[in-house]
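Example record

The entry below shows one chain as it appears in the dataset: sequence first, then structure tokens.
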Amino acid sequence: MTVMKWLNRRSTTIDFKDVTDNLEIPALPTPQKRALTKEEENALKKVDFTLKQKTFVNLLRYTGIRRGEALGLMQSDIDLEEMKLSVNRQVAFDKKGWPYLTDPKWKSFRTIDIPDILKSTLEEYLKTLICTYSQNRTGSCIQNLHSEDFGTRLFAELILQLVDMRDQEVGKNL
């Protein structure tokens, strides 16, 4: 119920007229997704990225995953032998800008093929990661690929501590 209709029902002596009855509100244009232009492609080639930045940009560029999904990737999500990438989580930010892990947008858990052009960059970057947690049961590090990029080294370490506590509890119950 509009405010004007509510006022008309409440008033017995005044007849309010809704001046917005014939007002048409234009629809907002939806942003169109598009490929990079030649100028944008050339600009990307000229930028002197660090290995971490190059990996992040190329993940977005060649796989089509969202920014938060790329930030949420862990080493165990990347299988270079099968050339597959698992999207299981994303990093989202609360109103104060603090990051937290959540399910991917629209719960779009999926496995994506890694294009050949991305393999060498991923291999090179994965070799640079230093694990702060010994190793999980699958033998791969549990470390967020981009934890320092958004200032959450403590956040990543907290997750690792929680995983460690969980593993200790599971060990007690065996």
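Notes for this example: The first strand starts at residue 78 and ends at 79. Helices lie at 3-10, 38-46, 51-63, 67-71, 116-128, 153-173.
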